[in-house]
Design goal:
Elements lengths: L1 E3 L4 E10 L8 E8 L5 E8 L12 E8 L16 E10 L5 E15 L3 H6 L14 E9 L21 E12 L1
Antiparallel strand pairs: 1-2, 2-9, 3-8, 4-5, 4-6, 6-7, 7-8, 7-9
């Protein structure tokens, strides 16, 4: 991370080298928890609906807005959700428009929810999510996420949507305050 005092921003580069591992990774990402006051989202990327690398043809690139609460999907079985792909920039603000802007050096994928993936995996049914809902925003900025395939009732993702072994992945983004 490199902070630029004159620009009032933080530049975050990240590099991963995925070695030959016996387990398939789900994503390479940075995550953080943001105070609950910031509930308004706007982004330039794919939307408005949830989309993944292997499920994005109908999600067109454009400018979209939502609330963190509305990023939730209503699945019968609790699971990872809310991903948005090919994002150029994202803002997370309060009702007065103050917050943060994250700008990609290229693109990133993101999700913003009131649950971590680990919390979602501990709940069996989607109607139980209120029991684990946190006030804070769980923000994930993904370099790459494995495709979802059709593993619930069929095969997993096609090979081109897997995170490749012995490969290097990198992304970078800038975080700045919106005052």
């Amino acid at each position: 991370m490199k902070q630029s005092e004159s620009l009032g921003c933080l530049f975050v580069p990240r590099l991963w080298h995925k070695c030959a591992m016996p387990v398939a990774l789900l994503c390479l990402a940075r995550g953080t928890v943001v105070p609950s006051l910031r509930q308004q989202l706007a982004w330039f990327g794919r939307g408005p609906m949830e989309n993944y690398q292997d499920r994005k043809n109908a999600a067109y690139i454009g400018m979209y807005s939502s609330t963190v609460e509305d990023m939730r999907e209503y699945y019968a079985h609790a699971q990872t959700m809310g991903e948005r792909c090919d994002t150029r920039w994202l803002t997370l603000t309060n009702s007065n428009g103050k917050g943060i802007k994250i700008t990609a050096n290229g693109t990133f994928d993101f999700s913003a929810l009131h649950y971590t993936d680990q919390e979602l995996w501990q709940v069996k049914y989607g109607h139980d999510l209120e029991n684990i809902r946190r006030n804070e925003v769980v923000l994930n900025l993904d370099c790459i996420q494995r495709g979802i395939g059709n593993a619930s009732c069929g095969p997993g993702p096609r090979p081109k949507y897997e995170i490749k072994k012995n490969s290097t992945y990198q992304y970078a983004f800038r975080i700045e305050a919106i005052k």
